Amino acid sequence: EAQVTQNPRYLITVTGKKLTVTCSQNMNHEYMSWYRQDPGLGLRQIYYSMNVEVTDKGDVPEGYKVSRKEKRNFPLILESPSPNQTSLYFCASSLAGLNTGELFFGEGSRLTVL
Amino acid sequence: GQNIDQPTEMTATEGAIVQINCTYQTSGFNGLFWYQQHAGEAPTFLSYNVLDGLEEKGRFSSFLSRSKGYSYLLLKELQMKDSASYLCAVRFNNAGNMLTFGGGTRLMVKP
């Protein structure tokens, strides 16, 4: 089954404790992206990647890191989480350039930073 | 900025038709997407418009006017399960392949 898988789905952590949210897709997509979704602000892009070893900042990259060492994986790293990073995070993927028009989303990871 | 505007909330009756509007900045436009998102779930793709006109897919249609920076999503024969948020997203060619999302329109369908 074609899918984007994120882990963990739910996490409560404390300020400053490094964490990684993993994302994996099995559709051989070149393009992968991370979004956060907050009430009243909609989906905002954090980072995206056009292919292996190619990453770019989105609208709200501060406090996040990503890596793309393999085509299928695109982990999101919070080196020192803070409470303002409490949010619902979505990973998404598509074929190169979004030309097909279809962005596939993972099920979301709800993160709470105390 | 690249503001994308859509109404925050709408209410409609089961069986009726509803139109959800989306306006955006026209500079650098390179495609518009509509997604549906049920509460607590991931967004799912509904439609894609890059040329002017109407794209129809069953009960859902999406319209685009590039010169006006305007799109709408039309939902016919509304069902209770259509209660969800509808997200308008635009790709701008001066922002790589980044999709910029509007805040979403929460649609409530009442019996």
SSE layout:
The complex is a heterodimer of chains A (114) and B (111).
Chain A: E1 4-7, E2 10-13, E3 19-25, E4 31-38, E5 42-51, E6 54-57, E7 65-66, E8 76-78, E9 87-94, E10 104-105, E11 109-113
Parallel strand pairs in A: 2-11
Antiparallel strand pairs in A: 1-3, 3-8, 4-5, 4-9, 5-6, 7-8, 9-10, 9-11
Chain B: E1 4-5, E2 9-13, E3 18-24, E4 29-37, E5 44-49, E6 53-57, E7 60-65, E8 70-75, E9 84-92, E10 99-101, E11 105-110
Parallel strand pairs in B: 2-11
Antiparallel strand pairs in B: 1-3, 3-8, 4-5, 4-9, 6-7, 7-8, 9-10, 9-11
Spell out the key features of this protein:
heterodimer; A: 114 residues; mainly beta; 7-stranded mixed sheet; 4-stranded antiparallel sheet; 11 strands; globular; B: 111 residues; 6-stranded mixed sheet; 5-stranded antiparallel sheet
Explain how this protein is built:
The complex is a heterodimer of chains A (114) and B (111). In chain A, β4 (31-38) and β5 form a beta hairpin. Chain A is built from no helices and eleven strands. The radius of gyration of chain A is 13 Å and the shape is globular. In chain A, strands 2, 4, 5, 6, 9, 10 and 11 form a seven-stranded mixed sheet that branches. Chain A has a four-stranded antiparallel sheet with strand order 1-3-8-7, with no helix packed on it. In chain A, 0% of the residues lie in helices and 50% in strands. Chain B is mainly β. Chain B contains no helices and eleven strands. In chain B, the strands form two sheets. In chain B, strands 2, 4, 5, 9, 10 and 11 form a six-stranded mixed sheet that branches. Chain B has a five-stranded antiparallel sheet with strand order 1-3-8-7-6, with no helix packed on it. In chain B, a hairpin with a 6-residue loop joins β4 (29-37) and β5. Chain B is globular. The model of chain B has no long low-confidence stretch (mean pLDDT 92). The chains are: A mainly beta (114), B mainly beta (111). At the A-B interface, β4, β5 and β10 of A face β4, β5, β9 and β10 of B.
